[in-house]
């Protein structure tokens, strides 16, 4: 791609995408993983141990430890690092019969399903936990954190699935302490829950016992959050718990779920202030409403959920692919109509587009954004067409996401006094179009380069006197 004046000249779209991936690879793999994360002083986002803002870009690889061998794990982790992901969400005691079905090397995690008795054999490469160690160390070498779920929720609140329920408040604390000690020096984010909600005091005692054990084991080194069921959020039960560093919610895989930006906004306003993110939105290549043969979520659905939440004040976002979380590959039985082998699904476009989102929201920093719909008052639209707007806290730039393109009128106080530079960012390819300058005006009308489903655009407005570099992705 060559930028020429106000127009974009395409040389080769596929070549450009390769260049983007290579660019992200250099920035990610060479970075090295910070060992600790903490919450910013204003409670809005995460920081590395060096005090640098940390963009949480997660991928749901729930069955990573349980189903993949090391060669496969290497393939998966390298792909995600190249694409700009920063966190891999994976489960130790996995959902798909993780207690009884052995991993790729014939090992199970516990003795007699007892959380106080991990099946550890002296020496390297002899047990389930050695394989977990290897994956975590390889992820660290690629600059990735592991968002580790100590257990899937069916082990403490079966409700559905295989189970069995094996946790009590007491043994959860013992197990958490052992797990925390083992991984205290690794790049870990603890994610409790596992697609289950606490439904009674005993469930809450198990969750809190596990959290207490983890903190005892790792000395408070790692952040903790909670992954609930679809349509739920961690704040419903745990917001005031000190161990809950940031809120996580699951917007889920139904066309009828509450739009995720509404949950992001609601959790952002809670006291005390804590960062928030969507930890399981609609998966790419997932049947809408779990109905086979009707409609499948695609990369547009993925992008819409991501930009909706990020421009509403999220500290990051999680991507998911329906085939990858379960590492589906024939002759394995597909879960919920999975239809694409996971190695092929690695190349679905939504995952690379999440890396592009991280790249552009690093150039126009997400951690400076304040949601502000007054920028497009009267142009918000409803349903799938709904637009989200945000501005930087210092008013040097503003962003508007248009999921179906089209025209709008911008009302920005800065634009009343100063010239503004307009850019159009294509979230599908990472290309940038120069939209020209706007003279000072009470408001101005503008039209995206395209419209309709699949023609989503990110409008970038820069205050010219701020001297911001032009947005640009790739070499």
From TrEMBL:
This is DUF4038 domain-containing protein. It comes from the Bacteria. It comes from Thermogutta terrifontis. SUPFAM superfamilies: (Trans)glycosidases (SSF51445). Residues 40-367 form the Apiosidase-like catalytic domain. The lineage of its organism: Bacteria, Pseudomonadati, Planctomycetota, Planctomycetia, Pirellulales. Residues 370-462 form the Putative collagen-binding domain.
